[in-house]
Design a protein that fits this description.
By secondary structure, this protein is an all-alpha fold. About 55% of the residues lie in helices and about 0% in strands.
């Protein structure tokens, strides 16, 4: 798998603008600008979602919020794990009838 390339924001904006303004196929614009066609296709789709033209993708703001919420959930789950009582210190029940923890009644 090839390493991901980071493209400058100006190039992204220019490429998206050119696709929208000219109506040329994404593959042709991508080739002219030296961008992978699937990268440009993703940028165009994301730009359409951000403008409300697509409802099959989250907007950039929604993606950021989702990322933040997932991070917060992970932190809270970690905090909950810390607050749980350690299982290694809990008394065990005996497997011998009548020899359980104090207050336990043997089965009748």
């Amino acid at each position: 798998m090839a390493a991901a390339r980071e493209y400058p924001d100006e190039l992204r904006e220019r490429a998206i603008r050119e696709v929208r303004a000219t109506g040329r196929p994404i593959a042709h614009v991508a080739k002219d600008l030296g961008i992978h066609k699937e990268a440009l296709r993703g940028w165009v789709r994301q730009a359409e979602a951000d403008r409300g033209e697509r409802d099959d993708r989250l907007t950039t703001a929604e993606q950021d919020e989702l990322r933040q919420l997932r991070k917060e959930v992970a932190e809270l789950r970690g905090a909950n794990e810390i607050l749980k009582p350690p299982r290694c210190f809990l008394p065990r029940r005996s497997t011998v009838p009548g020899r359980g923890r104090a207050g336990d009644q043997p089965p009748a």
